[in-house]
Amino acid sequence: MALPPPLRTSVTPAELELIACEQLVDIIPLVAMERTAFISGAYGPLRPPAKCKVPIWMATNLKLKKKCHIVPPDWLNVDFLQDRLTRETSQPEFSELPFRFAEVAKVILDVASDDISNPEKVRSLLQDIREARQAKSRDGVSKLDHSELSLPNLCAMEINEIRPFFVRSMGVLTQLVRQPDPGRMDQME
Amino acid sequence: MEDDYYSVESILAENQKIQCQFKIDIPDMGHLDGGNERDIKALSKIQIPMWMAYILIYSDYADFTIPLPFSARVRNALNAEARSVRLSGLVGQGGLWYGFGRMIMRLLNDIPAQEVSDVLTKTFRSRLPEVIDQAHHFAAASGSGGGAIGSDEATMAFREGLDGTERDLFMLAQENARRTKRWYETSEKARRS
Description:
Chain A: InterPro entries: GINS_A (IPR021151), GINS_bundle-like_dom_sf (IPR036224), GINS_Psf2 (IPR007257), PSF2_N (IPR056784). Chain A is mainly alpha-helical. Chain A has one domain (about 10-175): Ribosomal Protein L9, domain 1.
């Protein structure tokens, strides 16, 4: 394999962020632009002050040049996240969140915190949610078995974080569980 | 922890010795015992490395006894509290307790094999959460300038007692937690603009 060892086990968080940035988000443009073709598709036209859907990478680019406001997705606000945090801490299963919420939230908070109401509160809520979910996935470790593991509603970043050692531990368990196969001893050596 | 011919781990685990009792005389092989005898006499007990023991046992030249790391005493200790047993201490340098156990399991039949398998899986599962916890803990600690974490004696003893397989898992978990944490903490605004 040509990849360096750290990249072999899973993709990096930065790569996940790149993937998440293909998602569309609403912006309010501050400049006019004709419909323009990019490799991933054609976006626009931008006609202020009408809203327009563009990929997040484009939105952040425009935002940094102060050429648009980003309209945060409907889940990225204090009320919604507060509600999810309550569910997260009161119920045993993972609550439902967008699959790439961690990446999207971080990118938008990074570049467009002024477009979000109360960004500090949102940030701390996201952090709390993350910690609550981490505690749950840690509990999942003790339920690990060699054939399957079901953790519904786990999102991309969390899956990526636990994947390497979950996969490896399941591999080890497969080796340790005895297959009741009578032909096995004979074909061993 | 796999069967691959080229797996260094599996070769190392095969280097463990188990005690065999020979059923027949074998001439000119006394040097295996490191002793002065010229021949191996029937009923003599000799420590044989695993890779050689296979063929002796399958050819019915010798019997083996369950080695110390899987003896009743160790099993009881594992049953009582798996996390306080030092697996690395049980199996010498390489410290591949699970790999060794798996070989023993394959040498045995039916019920004893099932027992060994149960001990292995149960031990692994009860120790895994602690392995992962500590790995995360360390990833977090190293990010924010270390500190006094990890000086706790019980956790330190646990880390020293990790078997080779668990140590690999520890490193995997630690590396990944660290990477994710770094991503969460760095703001990429500078890079973007």
